Amino acid sequence: MKSTRRFLHFILPLPLVLALCPVFCRAAVIVTDDIGRAVVLDAPACRIVPLYGAFSELILSLGAGHCLAARTAADAKLPELVGLPVIGTHMRPNPELIAVLKPDVILHLAGRQEAYIHTDALRSLGLTVLAFTLDSFEDMFRVTKTLGLLLDRKEQAEARVREWKDRLASLKQSIPAGAPVRVFYEARYPNLLAAGGKGITRDIIAAAGGENVTREAKKLVRFSEEALLMADPDVYIVQQGPMNPAPPPPSARPHYRGLAAVRAEHVIYVDEHRYARPGPRSIDAAEELAAKIRAVRTGEKP
Questions:
Q1: Where are the chain's structural domains?
Q2: Mind listing the pLDDT tens digit of every residue in the chain (302 residues)?
Q3: Cα–Cα distance measured from residue 234 to residue 220, given in angstroms and rounded to the nearest whole number
Q4: Burial of 40 (0-12, 13-18, 19+ CB in 10 A)
Q5: CA 154, CA 168: separation in Å to the nearest integer?
Q6: Contact criterion met (CB below 8 Å) for 229 and 257
Q7: What is the CATH number of domain 5-163?
Q8: Is 97 exposed, middle or buried (0-12, 13-18, 19+ CB in 10 A)?
Q9: Model's pTM, two decimal places?
Q10: Is 261 left (phi over 0), alpha (psi -120 to 50) or beta?
């Protein structure tokens, strides 16, 4: 099914748009993205091209995998997406390949300025691109509901968000009283990068009863070994994945052996896609990490 895209000037208030076209809008799907772009579709979208894998996972969680028309190169390990056409990476999508697929909507991650060059190229081809922020659990809940509206899966989206919130509430109740466990999250080594005070990884750590020692309001923060030694975290998390494919154990790094977390063997290895990509697996990650942090609190190895 091909949906007709109609762009509304984002300065025009949405209630006024509805008042001006009551007959049309009664059957339409109207979505406003996180950069203020309002789009009207004649019918729910049924051909979606996500430029970031988190959107694919959220759509799959709504039982709408059949609406995915393509995937990025980074999503080769998701079995539900293996057979889909590959349209490049989220930072370097191929506009011509995407145009051939005739998507109703393209989903893009807001906030990456360098990627807007490519989304502008997509719009110049007459394609609809919506950009959303995914920096927290709250963002994830909000975007899931928006995708539910876009895909005519409103009830499924609301049920899924309730389930996630209930699991996080139960997790919060299970966290022992007392000071949170101080955590350092290694995103890359060498040229050390840490998860900062912005992004889904921060929320996962907090939900698990941890406190990120890196507070700078960025998703990724350059961190010197001197600063790490001064922070001296209780738990050292090593991310493994495309960004950090083969990190040596911290205990094998000369300057890391004095860290309290390394001496106590409180080193945790985690999967990058579960801990750094917003989606259903983020809730799993918070529950998994909480269990490991509870072990640390009781003097056990995580």
A1: 5-163, 176-297
A2: 444 454 444 444 545 444 444 444 345 899 999 999 999 999 999 999 999 999 999 999 999 999 999 999 999 889 999 999 999 988 889 999 999 999 999 999 997 666 677 788 899 999 999 999 999 999 999 999 999 999 999 999 999 999 999 999 999 999 998 889 999 999 999 999 999 999 999 999 999 999 999 989 999 999 999 999 999 999 999 999 999 999 999 999 999 999 999 999 999 999 999 999 999 999 999 999 999 999 999 888 89
A3: 20
A4: buried
A5: 21
A6: no
A7: 3.40.50.1980
A8: middle
A9: 0.89
A10: alpha
Rounded CA gap, 206 and 204, in Å? 6
- 176-297 is classed in which CATH architecture? 3-Layer(aba) Sandwich (3.40)
Q: In one letter, which amino acid is 202?
A: R
